[in-house]
Amino acid sequence: MTSTITTADTLTLYGTSFPSRVLLGTSRYPSLQSLSDSIDAARPGMVTVALRRQSNTGEAGFFDVLKRHGVALLPNTAGCQTVDEVLTTARMARELFDTPWLKLELIGDDYTLQPDPIGLVEAAGILIREGFKVLPYCTEDLVIGRRLLDVGCEALMPWGAPIGTGKGVTNPYGLRTLRERLPDVPLIVDAGLGVPSHACQVMEWGFDGVLLNTAVSQATFPPQMARAFALGVEAGRMAYLAGPMAERDSAQASTPVVGMPFWHQDGSAA
Amino acid sequence: MNIHINQQPFSVPDAATVTDALAAFGAKPPFAVALNGQFVARGEHASKALAAGDKLDIVSPVAGG
């Protein structure tokens, strides 16, 4: 059997290839061991991290665990609500984690945690000029996506649903439109996915990756769920590359009807 | 003079720098610093002078999504 699917199908962002299309968040696991086992199970291309004020009750050992895994780090600007907060957090993160990669989060609404699209574009432009490799957490809004690309972003991370809801994609039309209108831009669905079928679905639609956190960390058995998501992403990607059949409204027999031996075929040859 | 480090009041000498404040706080690596909401690069800690009422933030890695 021959295959037309290349084995070199990797997620490429800003010219850098990653070994997996799964990006994994590190928050809210029941234990450091559970986080570590989940990283082993998902084998993510990157893991997200954050920064907070240092205290004696900090997360001892957390950073050491990540360093042992050797996985690429993606610092976020979670919780920032102004452009100035984003810029300062990003600059601290670059020094602290020694990386130019940044998951740009600028929250515009406390209840939905919806991104502030106006400030997002402004902040992304400044950070791109400072050399950051910005992955902006945005909505499925096509025009905002284009503005982010205009200021230099080379990938987008549209939400599937509000952070932590686990609802799966709430606006399939909007998300698929974004995919269709930006066919050459790496798009990673970030936030709102709850089960592996949600991830598989967006990968079947041609998205380039998913970013997960709560769906894994709040599962009853996070490492098993991490593995399930990785398999779902792989299946969806393979299905996309394989080229799904066109959907039809009417039935079409899959078994040939020519040569049926029974009487009701007899009058049909006229 | 009095300053705030991570929202806690601290008293430091009048000529104190960011490096002095980090020592007073007992900052443990790895960390990064912002002074009055503006990032201060590691290479500037020793030369960045503080003023009364300054607010210093010292941050470290935590889990994030």
Automatic annotation (TrEMBL), chain A:
Main location: cytoplasm
Residues reported in the UniProt entry to bind 1-deoxy-D-xylulose 5-phosphate: 164, 191-192, 213-214
A GO term for molecular function: thiazole synthase activity
Catalytic activity: [ThiS sulfur-carrier protein]-C-terminal-Gly-aminoethanethioate + 2-iminoacetate + 1-deoxy-D-xylulose 5-phosphate = [ThiS sulfur-carrier protein]-C-terminal Gly-Gly + 2-[(2R,5Z)-2-carboxy-4-methylthiazol-5(2H)-ylidene]ethyl phosphate + 2 H2O + H(+)
Cellular compartments annotated: Cytoplasm
Keyword Cytoplasm part of the UniProt annotation: yes
Enzyme Commission code(s) on record: 2.8.1.10
Domain Thiazole synthase ThiG residue range list: 13-256
GO biological process, one term: thiamine diphosphate biosynthetic process
InterPro entries: Aldolase_TIM, Thiazole_synthase_ThiG, ThiG
Single GO cellular component term: cytoplasm
Pathway: Cofactor biosynthesis; thiamine diphosphate biosynthesis
Active site annotation, chain numbering: 103 (schiff-base intermediate with dxp)
Keywords assigned by UniProt, alphabetized: Cytoplasm, Schiff base, Thiamine biosynthesis, Transferase
Enzyme class per UniProt: transferase
Family matches, as HAMAP family: ThiG
Self-association and partners: Homotetramer. Forms heterodimers with either ThiH or ThiS.
Function summary: Catalyzes the rearrangement of 1-deoxy-D-xylulose 5-phosphate (DXP) to produce the thiazole phosphate moiety of thiamine. Sulfur is provided by the thiocarboxylate moiety of the carrier protein ThiS. In vitro, sulfur can be provided by H(2)S.
Family per similarity comment: Belongs to the ThiG family.
Protein name: Thiazole synthase
Organism: Caballeronia udeis
